[in-house]
Amino acid sequence: MNVRLxxxxxxxxxxxxxxxxxxxxxxxxxxGRPEFGDYQANGVMAAAKRMKTNPRELAQKVxxxxxxxxxAERVEPAGPGFINVTLRTDWLCRRVGEAxxxxxxxxxxxxxxxxxxxxxxxxxxxxxxxxxxRSTIIxxxxxxxxxxxxxxxxxxxxxxxxGTQFGMLIALMAETGAxxxxxxxxxQFYQAxxxxxxxxxxxxxxARQTVVRMQQGDEE
Length: 220
Known about the structure:
The chain is built from 8 helices and 6 strands, in the order H-E-E-H-H-E-E-H-E-H-E-H-H-H. The longest helix has 20 residues, at 130-149. The protein has helices at 3-17, 44-51, 55-65, 89-100, 130-149, 164-176, 186-199, 201-215; strands at 28-30, 39-41, 72-78, 82-87, 114-118, 152-156. By secondary structure, the chain is of the alpha+beta class. The strands form 2 sheets. Strands 1-2-4-3 form a 4-stranded antiparallel beta sheet. Strands 5-6 form a two-stranded parallel ribbon. 20% of the residues are buried. Strand 5 (114-118), helix 5 and strand 6 (152-156) form a beta-alpha-beta unit. It is elongated, with a radius of gyration of 29 Å.
């Protein structure tokens, strides 16, 4: 059971029973702070505005009409018309037990889809940094989650782009006489090459022609 969707269904039914427009959404979301319980239904205020009635009073009517005793330990009005829902501890314990007894942890398998997850795709002409590591870890966590759910995941990490940026580096190396051994800080060398490329038209053309020579198999 998806708890949020189930609460949304029941609260929306209760709103309709309390006289709210049938298309008024329950707007159930996880509570923003622990003192607000586990979930909050935030749709009453908008419904009350359409009905031109007191939202707090409408919230109380919705609570009275809602059938949440099997799920909720407390259902309380808050503020100008929010509804706070605190789930029952024994219900949560049963749900956790059911999940632990299921090798899929109770996760439903949707219609499988093909999903492409694009990893960090670093610029090969620059040094990598912690941001590449972070995004790769996030990407892999997303990929594993989607696979567990049942989707077909294609992991993509494009590292094959060696065009203009390598032309800039090689053109600057040729101009300065630098070798690979001289590049103690590739980041600074890349930045210097990029500045020249952006401000010197002759250098930019040499960099482009260097790319052409590379792509044609020039050994140098």
